[in-house]
Write a structure and sequence with these properties.
There is one protein chain. By secondary structure, the chain is mostly helical. Helix content is 68%, strand content 0%. The protein has 13 helices and no strands. It has helices spanning 4-21, 44-51, 55-68, 73-92, 98-113, 119-130, 143-151, 155-161, 165-179, 184-196, 202-225, 232-248, 253-267. Helix 9 (165-179) packs antiparallel against helix 10. The longest helix is centred in the C-terminal third of the chain and has 24 residues, at 202-225. The chain is globular and about 50 Å long.
Length: 277
Amino acid sequence: MSSHEDETLARAAVVALTGQLALAPKPGLPDPRDLGARTLCPDHGSLRWSAKALAPGLAAMAATARRIGEPTPALRAELGAIGRSTEHSVGLAGGGHKGALWALGFLVAAAALTPGTGGRETAAVAKRIAAFNDKGAPRRPSRGSSISVKYGAAGARGEARAGFPHVRRALDALAKARSAGATEAEARLDALLTVMSTLQDTELLYTAGPLGLRHVQAGARGVLEAGGTSTAAGAEALASLDADLHARAWSPRGSAGLLAGALFLDALPVSSRAPAA
């Protein structure tokens, strides 16, 4: 049974995910300006609704981590089982968020294991959890894992096992943009573009191939090199990239899920007496 602390972590993860959804414009991704007008993936309203369906599963992951008490193969197996059940629930609620569910699931479990630690320490604990194989996982390869093998991309599993490097880069980008005077929305968009600029997004590799992936990465770098979304040149480059990706029907969904992970870690309260990760 989940506790108040577990439910609080789950709510924080859902708030991070819906906060990511509220940003606009997000290149190639749904945003609140066009509820369903674009059809790359479930519309914005449906995604907001289905995001709330993650809360019970995420709370169960936190409760499981707290009960087991440390990263172990048993914890990894239970998180996998809860995640697959949650995927089914989210599908009934409208779908979407598969990548975000797994990223947030590992991070929520890690936060439950080491309450009061900072974002980077929590990511390090998530890495230890992800290091174990999920013995209950379906033997049939997923589309993402097949694409990872085909192109040598890290994929969601590699990202978790590396300690979420793109989540950590997003945290750095948030801090940098805020210190430079950007609004919170601009800081979050800069963090999203930072992830997009280097992530080997398996969804993009599937729909656009390696050349398409490099096109998206270059476009994201172009916005940042123009000064970021808080500048006139950066905002113009962002609008151009958004229009381009929607016209091509290319959606960097992996980057969106990792930004949600960064926003979750960014919101964690840090205690001066937190245990070592």
